[in-house]
Amino acid sequence: MNGAGVLETRLIDIGRERFANDVWGRAALLTRGVSDFSDVFSANAVDELISRRGLRTPFLRVAKGGSTLPESSFTAPAGVGATIGDQLDDTELWRKFADGATLVLQALHRTWEPVSRFSTQLSTELGHPVQANAYITPPQNRGFDDHYDVHDVFVLQIEGTKRWIIHEPVHEDPLRSQPWTDRRSAVAEAAQGEAYIDTVLEPGDVLYLPRGWLHAAQAQGKVSIHLTLGVHNWTRHALAEHLAQAALAALGDDPGMRRSLPLGVDGPDGEIAAIRERLAAAVLDADTTSLFHRARRGQGRPAPLGPVAQLAAIEGLGPESSVRLRDALEARLEGSRLTTRVGWLDFPEANLPSVRRLMDGGNHLASDLGVELVERLLRAGVLVPVEQ
Length: 388
Hints:
- The chain has 388 residues and is α+β, with helices and mostly antiparallel strands.
- It has 15 helices and 19 strands.
């Protein structure tokens, strides 16, 4: 990365080191006027996505009065040649929006390229997967009641204003299996207490909330549009799960562990000590590196790949062709094997120096890498042509 990334330049004003040490996963942070986000998302983008892109559920949900409306109330077939029944009905959405409903555009990191690019950059910097939703709330309306998320969020105010009321957690660092609905009464009680932050976000403001922090928001005098970047945190618990998976897989190769318990066994007491000892030994021996990286690769997607442009690059390939590693591949070279989000490739020893050079993410001439190697990697979707 060349210089500061999007975290420092567009989301916070306290510097990466201080954010990492004092804020990340610990406290809510409000940053005023840190960036103009019109290049990332806008009201025009909302209208484009809803009325012209043929989106289907679950790329949009609708909420009113703290509840999510049924999908059938805002979807319909789109006429001849597009009869799939769960496409967004822009007329019904307009009526619900005019009646006070909040529109939630989900997974914008898949449907709107500027948001996709921004989310990918942030994910790379944080080392955690990032997804994006947009919330479009009509004046004086509130989309959801007080609740907490099981992932960190950055809230980017795009247009309009919105009042946010933040309270400290009732359950710190919740796992994905520990949603706020498991603690409704505690959340409701805490929401009546003194707020940690009570503020109105204006365009360009950013609010960071660690998972577990309670929040509710209400639009003010105009339509409010905000973008939520959800950070799906890797946790120590997740690493423990990978350790357990690796240990259990190893124990599956142990004939003694596969053996049945004695006939008429009354309980595990006679076996548990020996099993605990073998399990502990398997955990100590487990190598979770490959499991971790495989899971991490599975939580994201590589940068978009245009099939027509890719074929043209292969057909026009020559020594002066310029190529680069496809973005967001999570590429790792382990020995002679390159593993990525689009699969794995093994290479002869002679190719490894060129493959290592590609890992820097820069632009390279095919003549410097080997035209045959470049063609193989273009066909595999690992390399892409450099746009001229």
